[in-house]
Write a structure and sequence with these properties.
The protein is of the alpha/beta class. The protein is 35% helix and 26% strand.
């Protein structure tokens, strides 16, 4: 039996076990930087497999090493994120989240379970490949500054130093059994915007005696859109969105003293990113001052844009077509969503691909970051097997 057949057989053998791992993680989700029990569960599972590992990266992360023959010959890395989101789950399933207001609504339970499944397969086959594989179970993907940036500072890409890194992410638009790839620029940089506008409150019937921060905020939101529509290169995608606006002390007939805005800015160009920050701050301050108010404009610089290295991604496509079938590997467009996997791709060649989880017959169609998100758990069969296959093929390249 060749190594691909062995991987597919082992993935089928371990499928139900890995479903159980995923369901446990789904029931007990933890927020970014709070994944204490999750990290311990991962460490315990690796210990049961007798896979050497270190627990405590960025406090809750786990890094493991699987050594094949001649381990110093080559090292590559596989990464999964382990944190959840502050969302109240609406699904009525046996494995529904038991933690109020917290849910694995972005599929990190799938990523973690898949990588644990890959670990079990690779450990079983370690005498059939050369080199070594570093498994990175990373905390805090969902919250700035991003667990990836912390792990890199702590030396996760050293001792041993991987030559490349692979990651996968659930993708509800794709049917289960498929994956999506995109070489080159793939995902956007992500910055958080926090604005506090201060005016002078008063009665809604006497606006002439007030400085209305709601009106200032309205002008500001509209005007700031010009930063994207009239200043950015139209061939380089940019997005500016304000998703939160709230006043302090306002009512239908009360002009408040302050209004708070929160938004996100995303782009694929670092030069433009910096220039846009300056333009947004300058415009916001000028609008507030011109209308008689004041403004605090704070930008939290988040993740960089994510680039899939061209040659590595071409190999991943070829390897995936061999494992899944050519018709199961599809091209994806640029996405304006962000991922802290981007930090790894700034350091070493990386490939971040998408794992299909959709099944319309089972009514599994909800998007990530929604309270009804779920997956067809056959994705775990393909997710763990493919990752193990990609790791071994990349080691042999």
């Amino acid at each position: 039996m060749n190594i691909k057949d062995n991987i597919q057989r082992l993935a089928a053998d371990y499928h139900q076990e890995v479903i159980g791992v995923r369901r446990h993680l789904h029931q007990f989700p933890e927020l970014s930087f709070e994944e204490k029990a999750t990290g311990q569960f991962i460490a315990n599972t690796l210990a049961e497999m007798e896979i050497p590992h270190q627990h405590g990266w960025a406090e809750n992360g786990v890094v493991a090493i699987i050594q094949g023959k001649n381990p110093d010959k080559k090292t590559i890395a596989l990464r999964a994120d382990i944190d959840a989101l502050p969302i109240q789950e609406a699904n009525e399933v046996a494995y529904k989240s038991q933690h109020e207001g917290i849910m694995h609504a972005c599929g990190h339970d799938v990523h973690t379970a898949s990588l644990l499944g890959s670990a079990k397969i690779l450990h079983q086959l370690r005498h059939q490949f050369e080199g070594q594989i570093k498994l990175i179970f990373q905390p805090a993907e969902e919250k700035a500054p991003g667990g990836a940036s912390i792990l890199i500072k702590e030396g996760v890409l050293k001792n041993p130093a991987p030559l490349s890194i692979l990651g996968q992410h659930v993708h509800p638009p794709l049917e289960v059994g498929k994956i999506g790839v995109k070489a080159g620029m793939f995902m956007a940089s992500t910055d958080e915007i926090y604005v506090t506008i201060t005016g002078k409150g008063g009665h809604g019937a006497t606006p002439h005696q007030c400085v209305d921060p709601v009106l200032i905020a309205s002008h500001m939101i509209v005007a700031l859109q010009q930063i994207v529509s009239r200043n950015s290169d139209p061939t380089m995608p940019s997005v500016l969105t304000f998703g939160y606006i709230a006043s302090q002390g306002g009512a239908n007939n009360v002009i408040p003293n302050t209004v708070r805005l929160e938004g996100t800015f995303r782009t694929m160009d670092e030069q433009w990113r910096k220039a846009a920050h300056q333009k947004m701050q300058k415009m916001a301050l000028a609008i507030a001052e011109g209308m008689g108010g004041t403004c605090e404009f704070n930008i939290v610089v988040g993740y960089p844009f994510l680039v899939n290295e061209e040659q590595l991604t071409a190999r991943v496509r070829t390897f995936a077509e061999d494992y899944l079938g050519k018709e199961q590997v599809v091209d994806l467009p640029i996405r304006m969503t962000g991922e802290d996997f981007a930090f790894y791709t700034q350091e070493i060649p990386g490939c971040f691909y998408r794992l299909g989880v959709r099944n319309e017959a089972k009514k599994i169609t909800s998007s990530v970051h929604t309270n009804t998100f779920d997956v067809d758990e056959d994705c775990l069969l393909h997710g763990m097997g493919l990752m193990a296959w990609l790791a071994i093929k990349e080691l042999g390249n």
